Amino acid sequence: MQIVLCGVWVSIVGRIDDGDFDRVRNDWIGFGIAASEGRRSRMEMSDLVSPKQVSRAIGVSESSLKRWCDQGLLQTVRTAGGHRKIEVSEVVRFIRERNLALRAPEVLDLPPVSERAELGLVRGQSLLTSALLAGNELLVRQIIFDLYLAKHPVSVICDEVLAVAFREIGERWACQEADPFQERRGCEIAVRVMFDLRRCQRPPEPALNAIGGTIEGDQYSIPLTMAELVLRDAGWNAVSLGTSLPFSSLIRAVVETRPRLFWLSVSYIQPSIDFIREFAKLSQACMEAGAALVVGGRALTESLRLKMTYSAYCDTMQHLERFARTHSHVISSSAGISTGDCPVDREVVSHPTPHGLENPS
Ligand code: B12
């Protein structure tokens, strides 16, 4: 599993320069299958690297790194052979929290980083719009990863960078300054990059299971994927069911998997669907299963919402994040689940401190 993930990453980075999008697509389909198989347990999902690799990636001596591990600053795991390893998500957490520079990301199969100290949300967004329109997947990946390393919360990257970029792309398309293929290609890239960011996220709490999807006719995969990513960032074991699913199928998924949370992303409502009536059935199924029903999306007008019953409506991904964190605490404390230390990264510090490298305590 780990070999599959790392190997795919390397091959993708190598191929994008050649502009071979079909092969990249196929690789990612393979990657998606491998990763979804890996959802079964925390350890299967993990992506382990050696302390030596980590010391090279962040440019410190191996002895400093081992000392940090001994001090418990970096969590390690032991392999069956007794070797000490570190999860990539743990390395990313450490780098983000300590504001360290990632000097050789390729050692961990992570995307290249640029001058992240200078890359704020506004500049990131304008660069992202051009990169998406140009179909430059590597640059898109780099911008998103830079912002993530600079401690911007995933929900903020979604609301203030990705969503704004797509709004602009929509405007350019309306003014015939962008071709539909550029918009569609941009959507595909955004979904892949968001999926890849999951590798940097800490393993979710399996008991906090969440599922979500879009209704039949609604093809909007970006908000759906954003919600999945944001929920995972808040510690939820969120799994997207995909787009354009009949209400009956969404209800079956609720009955069979009994999630603690169900998110419905509604960006488009097909005129032929009796939305309010079908939604009422989904709402009832969620209540019977004990799942919180969270809704969001541009198609949920106020007049529609007045006729709907749900646990929370979210205007933005930041609203979703807030709800998810609060609700997970409620569930965890009543069920005795430990969600670990999942702080809300509100503070934005973007200058790597050289002192932090040798003395991160
Ligand atoms: C990409 C795109 C498409 C793609 C989507 C591909 C894909 N794989 O997702 C495709 C080509 C399929 C498409 C099709 C259509 N589109 Co379109 N599309 C867009 C575009 C450019 C971006 C939409 C997007 O994904 N944005 C990113 C998301 C994340 O941003 P957001 O929707 O603002 O969501 C934020 C919040 O609303 C909230 N949120 C949203 N959903 C959820 C869900 C949850 C659970 C939560 C918590 C929060 C939340 O958080 C998000 C982040 O801040 C917009 C332009 C624009 N101005 O947005 C047009 C746009 C939405 N499309 C539009 C139209 C008209 C259509 C079509 C009807 C065109 C047609 N005649 O066929 C079809 C309908 C498709 C369908 N059946 O689903 C119009 C809608 C106009 C309106 N009044 O509603 C827009 C605004 C373009 C325009 N200016 O005319 N589209």
Model description:
By secondary structure, the chain is α/β, with parallel strands linked by helices. It has four domains: 1-45; 50-110, Multidrug-efflux Transporter Regulator, Chain: A, Domain 2 (Orthogonal Bundle); 121-198, Orthogonal Bundle (Methyltransferase, Methionine Synthase (B12-binding Domains), Chain A, domain 1), CATH 1.10.1240; 204-335, 3-Layer(aba) Sandwich (Rossmann fold). It is built from 16 helices and eight strands. Strands 5-4-6-7-8 form a five-stranded parallel β-sheet. The radius of gyration is 21 Å and the shape is globular. The relative contact order is 0.10.
Q: Which CATH first-tier class of the largest domain would you pick?
A: Alpha Beta
How many beta strands in the DSSP annotation? 8
Stated plainly, the CATH topology of the largest domain is called Rossmann fold
The helix fraction, in percent, is 40-55%
Summary keywords:
361 residues, alpha/beta, Multidrug-efflux Transporter Regulator, Chain: A, Domain 2, Methyltransferase, Methionine Synthase (B12-binding Domains), Chain A, domain 1, five-stranded parallel β-sheet, three-stranded antiparallel β-sheet, 12% strand, disordered C terminus, binds cobalamin
Summarize the structure.
By secondary structure, this protein is an alpha/beta fold. The chain contains 16 helices and 8 strands.
Question: Mind sketching the topology for me?
Answer:
Blueprint: H1 2-16, H2 21-37, H3 42-45, E1 48-49, H4 51-58, H5 62-70, E2 77-78, E3 84-87, H6 88-98, H7 121-134, H8 137-149, H9 154-174, H10 180-197, E4 205-215, H11 221-233, E5 236-245, H12 247-257, E6 261-265, H13 275-289, E7 292-296, H14 302-305, E8 312-314, H15 317-335, H16 354-358
Parallel strand pairs: 4-5, 4-6, 6-7, 7-8
Antiparallel strand pairs: 1-3, 2-3
Bound molecules: cobalamin.
